[in-house]
Amino acid sequence: MKFDTLIIGGGLAGLVCGIYLQKHGQRCVIVSSGQSALHFSSGSFDLLNYLPDGTPVERPFEVIGALKQQSPRHPYAKLGEDRFKELSNCVVDFLAEAGVQVVGNPEQNHYRVTPMGTLKPTWLTFKEQVVCEQEDKLPWKKIALFNITGFLDFYSRFIIDEFQRLGTECVLHEISFPAVEGLRQNPTEMRSVNIARLFDKQENLDELVRALKTVETDCEVIVLPAIAGLSRDNVLTYLEERVNKKVCLLPTLPPSVPGIRAQQQMRKAFERLGGVYMLGDTVLKADREGNSVVRVYSYNHGDIPFMMKNVVLATGSYFSQGLIAVPDKVYEPVLNLDVDFIANRKEWYDMNVFAPQAYEAFGVKTDDDFRGISQGQVLDNVYVIGSILEGFNAIKQGCGAGVSILSALYVAKRILSK
Ligand SMILES: Cc1cc2nc3c(=O)[nH]c(=O)nc-3n(C[C@H](O)[C@H](O)[C@H](O)COP(=O)(O)OP(=O)(O)OC[C@H]3O[C@@H](n4cnc5c(N)ncnc54)[C@H](O)[C@@H]3O)c2cc1C
């Protein structure tokens, strides 16, 4: 099996890299074990919400110099200010072409609503979801919040309290109809994705329209949990045209319907461009000749190797098992690349769970071109992208998706320029 580029891991980083490379004429394969962090997405992509010292960031473009001083190995520091700006400026259009519609702008963070109803800064938010320009104000005075009776992954009471604290009146309406009764028989089935599958069917969507219309309300907007639009396009437009009101979605607890939809859309875009996506296979090991990886082996393909000019490692962090932590070390299990971690395990974590945790910033070491390093030697044809990278704390700095997308675009361009 011969390809120009083999991408290991098909989450946000692997898909962005693959789409860019396919679009520019490469023949790529993505091999991916399973679910990615997108399945748990908040519905927003963060670029940079806080500097490593905790300073809040409103305008990411203005702080890359300070970030570089505080965290010289941060992926954004490796990109440098100009590339950081250039790459982040093209992301909205890039994602739209891949079928993922987002709103937002890298020059100024906006605010998204969390599943608890609070507001948090972010960069890009899926188009259907509620976004705010201000950190203490929603864009409406009166909201009608609808939930499906028995859907417990959506905390309406907390949301109403938060919205009222922000000065917006919010009235809850519970709706129930035959299609969801089947799911209600078993509470473990009453999950966002299962409900969304129901609303992918026309007759159930029309039932939802009827339920929304039965409520007399003078609200400016109808807000629903994100339980629609899994595989069907333009669900909100369909609802809005029939109920004659603006309709928005709020994130639920995972699994994330908008995140899974984004993953599906990007996979389709990659395949439409001719890419090969192998889901459910796991890359196990590779053969090297000198400083290049020449053959890669996966679980499903046994001793039949993948052969390629470039390898991109996008296997994610601990969550996706791109990094493995054992008592005395943190290691990268596929290519055995060098990992930056602290030798003394006691320094990995802080007993205060709200403090920054050192282990969050452990990751695979790279040079400034994101090439992987093995026993101190930079590998010529191995690139590393996404949340497996060293030098940043996605949770504390609010930069997870930004690192994945920008490192993926940078590496794709780098490979094409070779
Ligand atoms: C639960 C969770 C929720 C998050 N939510 C957000 C959010 O809402 N907004 C935000 O900005 N950031 C969020 N982040 C940060 C997140 O890391 C990035 O946003 C981004 O999605 C990570 O993408 P990735 O492609 O680097 O890794 P991942 O999404 O982890 O994808 C890695 C993929 O590689 C595959 N893989 C691993 N090992 C192998 C192997 N050996 N062979 C083949 N495939 C393999 C995995 O199965 C997985 O599909 C979240 C992170 C987590 C863990």
Describe the model.
With 418 residues, the protein is of the alpha/beta class. It folds into two domains: 2-84 and 276-416, FAD/NAD(P)-binding domain (3-Layer(bba) Sandwich); 130-250, Rossmann fold. The chain has 13 helices and 22 strands. Strands 1, 2, 13, 14, 15, 16, 21 and 22 form an eight-stranded mixed beta sheet that branches. It has a four-stranded parallel beta sheet with strand order 10-9-11-12, with helices on both faces. Helix 1 links the parallel strand 1 and strand 2 (28-32). The radius of gyration is 22 Å and the shape is globular. The structure holds flavin-adenine dinucleotide.
Please give the structural blueprint.
Blueprint: E1 2-8, H1 12-23, E2 28-32, E3 44-45, H2 64-70, H3 75-79, H4 81-89, H5 91-97, E4 102-104, E5 110-113, E6 119-122, E7 124-126, E8 131-132, E9 142-148, H6 156-165, E10 169-175, H7 178-184, H8 192-199, H9 202-214, E11 221-225, H10 235-243, E12 246-250, H11 257-272, E13 276-279, E14 283-289, E15 292-298, E16 306-313, E17 324-326, E18 329-331, E19 339-340, E20 363-364, E21 371-374, E22 377-384, H12 394-397, H13 400-416
Parallel strand pairs: 1-2, 1-16, 2-13, 9-10, 9-11, 11-12, 16-22
Antiparallel strand pairs: 3-7, 4-7, 5-6, 5-8, 14-15, 15-16, 17-18, 19-20, 21-22
Bound molecules: flavin-adenine dinucleotide.
Flavin-adenine dinucleotide binds at residues 8-14, 31-38, 40-42, 44-46, 282-283, 314-316, 319-322, 334, 386-387, 394, 400-401, 404.
